[in-house]
Amino acid sequence: MAIFLAVILFAFSTTITPGPNNVMIMSSGVNYGIKASLGHLLGICLGFPFMVLLVGLGFGVVFEQYPNLHQLIKLIGVIYLVWLAWHIATAEPKRIEQGTSKPLSFMQAVLFQWVNGKAWVMASGAIAAFTTLDGVYWQEVVIITLAFLAVAFPCVGLWLIGGALLRRVLTKPVFQRVFNISMAIILILSVLPVISELWLYYFN
Predict the structure, then answer these.
(1) What are phi and psi of 113, to 5 degrees?
(2) Mean pLDDT, to the nearest integer, of 182-186?
(3) Does residue 61 surpass a pLDDT of 80?
(4) What is the distance in angstroms between the CA of the first residue and the CA of the last residue of the chain?
(5) Which 8-state DSSP code applies to residue 99?
(6) Nearest C-alpha neighbor of 32 from the set 79, 100, 85
(7) Which residues, in sequence order, are CB contacts of 159 under 8 Å at separation 6+?
(8) CA distances, 93 to each of 68, 173, 199 (Å)
(9) Listed ranges 29-38, 119-128, 131-140; the one with the highest mean pLDDT
(10) Domain ranges of the chain
């Protein structure tokens, strides 16, 4: 029970803090509203715990054995995040209202976890910190997964609701444009450590 509470605190603190998922879901709330963003929300809240489960059950070992593959996935993730940042920055309220721009789908949000640098740090960090040599490993992995599942909806949902509330404030297109550009910049800033790591890996 004590371990579960510790995992819950870890999961809460890492899930509620700013990161690519939260920035994107907040932007989705501003641009599309809560109802249209539910697929995106579900994709994050179910996709990340599923990633934790797979990493804990050994999927992460594949990347330890093939580091080039892991670096390639990181590179794809950076490119995808930059594209998403551009997508957010250039989203215009009028285009959104006309239905020519759409939020991320459930499956896109699920797949995004695997190219999200913060998600990898959270998943691998939790597995490393809260599994023990003398415990039943698979049970501990399941407990960690359930902890992230428990905090995902309230934590990520809070960012979505915050975005939806901001939507009511950002009534003028110019304000919404400034918000979108600001979120895009924050998203790019969150990728800089990964870009630095990739630069050192390939060019140092």
Answers:
(1) -55, -30
(2) 81
(3) no
(4) 46
(5) T
(6) 100
(7) 22, 25, 26, 29
(8) 41, 6, 36
(9) 29-38
(10) 2-203
Contact indicator for 88, 24 with CB cutoff of 8 Å? yes
Angle at 30 between CA 28 and CA 34, to 5 degrees: 65
pLDDT of residue 95: 47
Closest CA relative to residue 54, chosen from 4, 124, 1, 103: 124
For 114, 118, 137, 186, the CA distances from 150, given in Å and listed in that order, are 20, 19, 20, 27
CB 78 within 8 A of CB 184: no
> Which DSSP category does 93 fall into?
H
Q: How many CB atoms lie within 10 A of CB 79?
A: 12
The pLDDT score that the predictor gives to residue 177 is 81
Contacts of 93 by beta carbon, 8 Å cutoff, 6+ apart:
31, 173, 176, 177
Is residue 177 a contact partner of residue 92, using CB atoms and an 8 Å limit?
yes
Tokens for 11? 């999961």
Instruction: Give the residue among 122, 130, 149, 124 at the shortest CA–CA distance from 62.
Output: 124
Query: Quick one: pLDDT band at residue 100, thresholds 50, 70, 90?
Result: low
pLDDT, position 92 = 66
